[in-house]
Structure formats: C-alpha cells, structure tokens
Amino acid sequence: MKKRPARVAGYCAGALALCALQPAPGADLGTAGAARVHPQRWPKLRPVPPRDESLERRLDLLLARMRPEQKVGQLIQADIDSITPDDLRHYPLGSILNGGNSSPHGDKLAPPREWLTLADRFYDASLGAPGSAGIPALWGADAVHGHNNIPGATIFPHNIGLGAARDPQLIRRIGQINALEVRVTGLDWAFSPTTAVARDPRWGRTYESHSQNPALVRRLRAAQVPVVAVLLSGRPLWVNAELDAADSFVAAWLPGPEGEGVADVLFRAADGSVRHDFRGKLPFSWPRSARLPAVGSGEPRLFPYGYGLTYEDDGELQPLP
C-alpha cells in the first residue's frame, strides 16, 4: 500500500443556502412581475489569486495527459453507499463522500479503524487504476456539527445554537476539534462550517444557519477557516447582501430544482426499498447510485413526479428579466 501524505486538516466547504424573503406585514406586494433588477449595478468581484508559475506548468502538463473522462470524473462525487474502491479502478471519480447516514459497509457502528482502512483503500484504488492521472480521490464527510457518523466522536450543537451564543472563539475551537477528529479517520474534507443565511424557518435546514443576519454569519465564520459559499437556485436571484459574507462565491442557476420540495427522492435501492429511512425531499439532484441517471438528466418519466416544476410564494425574490 502506498504511503499516504499528510493531509491538511480543515478542507472545508460551506453551503450558502438562501431562502425566499418574506414581505413585511402589511407590505404592498404590487403587481406580480413588476419588480425590476439592474445587474449592471451589482458589485463586481475581481479576485487576484497568487500565481505560482511552476505550479501552473505542472497543471498544464497534467491536464494535457488526462483523458476527457478523467477530467469529467474530477467533477463527480459519489456516496460510499453507492461505490466501492474497486469501482474507482473503472470510474476515475475525483471524490467520494459519506452523507449523514453513510458508513463503511453499511455498519453504523463501524469503529474509527474501519473508516481509516476504507479511506486507504479508496486512496490506493484511485492511484492504482490503469492509466491513472495520479490524482488521489478526496473523501468529504458530512460532519457539520461533529464527526457524528463515528461512535464516540464529539458532537456539538447545530449552528443555530452556536449562533445564539455569539462567541467566535468557541466556534473556532469547535472547528479545530471537528477537523482533528475527521483527519484521524483518514478523511480529507469536512463539509463545515456551513455559511448559511436562513431567512425562512420553513426551510428544512434552518438549524444549519448561524443567523439570518449576514453580518453575524460573517463575524462567526471569520473565527474559522475561509470557506467557499455556494448558491444553488432555479434562476438568478438578487444576492448583494450575501456577497460580502463569503471569501469566495460560487453560483449555479439550475432550472428545475427550485427551493426545497420540488421533487421527491425518486431513486431508491435496486429492489425498490427506501434507503436510509429517507422519505423527505431534496432541493437538488441526488442520484442514489453511480449506475442510475441523475434526477435532472431530462428523462421524461421524471416530470410526472414533480421534477422540473417551480413553486412560487408571494414575496419571493424576483427572477432576472
């Protein structure tokens, strides 16, 4: 087995989930569609990242020898419940993850040693595949308030409680502990802190938001490592208030998966049974297996189940013209 290099603790990615703004009591909503936006007035981000010429040359050489399927694979992340180390020898995926209910071999009481062993197997498989580009697969963990999949790990309050404490140093210490416990199990990446700015308590993950106030979220987030804020929406929205609350801002406009509850989870296990006791709804495409098409693949059979529909409420942010 190849020796794995030391990993940097605390690869973190935040998810900035924006909910519909509700009008003030008695506010005049006006005529539907009357609101106008002016994109030309939006603040423009012009980040100037440091440039390492030797690194750029290495990247150019690496990309030149990668096959198209390897480049596409770098953009794909599969859950460990749907992929094995042997699969990585055939599918050059860039990363894997364990969701809140995923564990090695489906054993929810698997000890840390089994997690580390499986992490090593995925790592070796990604480098040992025929024609490998030499890029090890990353493993991301849904450890948003502690490494909660591991028996005996430290569990912390959700962000909504930590935000009420208004203690940046406490949040920084929690982030350090979480990063350490994720790292010792062989994983590279924790999906935390979650830099959410929840505006509507009907959103199913409001508890992952420190506050509805972007200024407070920015102050608390600053106590931890920098994060990438990600906004997914069915159409372009006005996000001026959120731009200043993140170091990096990634936006994707995905027609169809608008808000939450647009489509039921369509894919189950191969025998048709529910997996992970999950009967909720998702705001994004979540294929349950590497061998099944994604919900948003355009298959006509998905539309009768609600996919592709948009539900609007009064006071919702207006789309761009």
What's the gist of this structure?
With 321 residues, the protein is of the alpha/beta class.
**What is the CATH top level name of the domain at 11-17 and 66-253?**
Alpha Beta
Q: Could you report the average pLDDT, rounded to the nearest whole number?
A: 69
Low-pLDDT parts are: 6-34, 232-236, 252-270, 278-321
N-to-C order of helices and strands: EHHEHEHEHHEEEHEHEEE
User: In what range is the share of β-strand residues?
Assistant: 5-15%
**Structural Rg:** 21 Å
Main sheet?
A: 5 strands, parallel
The rough form would be described as globular
Number of DSSP-assigned strands: 11
Question: How is this fold's topology laid out?
Answer:
Blueprint: E1 11-12, H1 53-65, H2 68-73, E2 77-79, H3 85-88, E3 95-98, H4 112-128, E4 138-141, H5 159-165, H6 168-183, E5 189-190, E6 196-197, E7 209-211, H7 214-221, E8 228-233, H8 240-243, E9 248-253, E10 263-264, E11 281-282
Parallel strand pairs: 1-5, 2-3, 3-4, 4-5, 6-7, 8-9
Antiparallel strand pairs: 10-11
Can you give a write-up of this model?
The protein is an alpha/beta fold. The chain has a domain at 11-17 and 66-253: TIM Barrel, CATH 3.20.20.300. It has helices at 53-65, 68-73, 85-88, 112-128, 159-165, 168-183, 214-221, 240-243, and strands at residues 11-12, 77-79, 95-98, 138-141, 189-190, 196-197, 209-211, 228-233, 248-253, 263-264, 281-282. Helix 3 links the parallel strand 2 and strand 3.
